[in-house]
Design a protein that fits this description.
The protein is of the alpha/beta class and 228 residues long. It folds into two domains: 125 residues, 3-Layer(aba) Sandwich (Rossmann fold); 92 residues, Winged helix-like DNA-binding domain superfamily/Winged helix DNA-binding domain (Arc Repressor Mutant, subunit A), CATH 1.10.10. The chain is elongated, with a radius of gyration of 18 Å. It has eight helices and twelve strands. The strands form three sheets. Strands 2-1-3-4-5 form a five-stranded parallel beta sheet, with helices on both faces. The chain has a four-stranded antiparallel beta sheet with strand order 6-7-8-9, covered by helices on one side. 33% of the residues are buried.
């Protein structure tokens, strides 16, 4: 029986109840909020394992909620699945770049939603098991438990997604990862892969690495790798 705690942030009562009913049948502990402000407060006070976050909310919208969650050290490691009626690539990419782990587009099948929830929680548990393993390579030190990367003893100001990509590449130097593999590892294989979203993250990551950006090498026609 699952013991994970899930926060549902959804202002439409029928959709909120549909999600709550189907997750309750699986044994999850559930918290419900009907606005962005209520959702943020509940996340900070209740410390859920996962937030199911509608984007179109009264007051503070879902993207702003996600931004605040990932900015706050106390909530940034909470998994987020966006539940949205916005299916355009630009809206999805914006949410993912803010640090959301996955998205489900309305209308959705409860079985599909449950599958996404289970997949994201599995990845969260796998990440938490590696929280104490510090990676040191070249002048870079990555501390997962602190969610911190330092280059030449200077802390890098990375987004949630940039940190996870850098951690993935740096812990396996010399390995070549395709864009699809990078997205699968960071987000999971249930969400759409776009070259644009991965390349956008790499541009930002290299900019923040500065003169050491050459550690991340583009393998033409394949993907990326971190040099040994």
């Amino acid at each position: 029986m699952p013991t994970e705690k899930i926060l549902i942030v959804e202002d439409e009562e029928n959709i909120q109840e549909l999600i709550r009913y189907n997750l309750a049948k699986e044994g999850y502990q559930l918290i419900c909020a009907s606005s962005g402000e209520q959702g943020l407060e509940a996340a900070r006070k209740k410390n859920p394992d996962l937030v199911l976050l509608d984007l179109m909310l009264p007051g503070l919208d879902g993207l702003d909620v996600c931004r605040e969650l990932k900015r706050d050290a106390g909530t940034r490691n909470i998994a987020v699945i966006m539940v949205t009626a916005k299916g355009e690539e630009s809206d999805v990419v914006t949410g993912l770049e803010l640090g959301a782990d996955d998205y489900v587009t309305k209308p959705f099948s409860p079985k599909v939603l449950l599958s996404r929830v289970k997949a994201v929680l599995r990845r969260q548990h796998a990440i938490q098991k590696d929280q104490t393993e510090v990676t040191r390579i070249h002048d870079l030190v990555i501390h997962p438990g602190r969610h911190e990367a330092r280059l030449k003893d200077q802390k890098l100001d990375l987004t949630f997604t940039e940190f996870r990509i850098l951690q993935m590449l740096a812990t396996r130097p010399g390995w070549v990862f395709t864009r699809g593999q990078i997205v699968d590892a960071v987000r999971g294989d249930d969400h759409a892969v776009t070259d644009r979203s991965v390349d956008f993250q790499m541009v930002g990551l290299r900019r923040k690495l500065g003169e050491d950006s050459d550690y991340i090498e583009t393998v033409r026609g394949v993907g990326y790798r971190f040099l040994e």
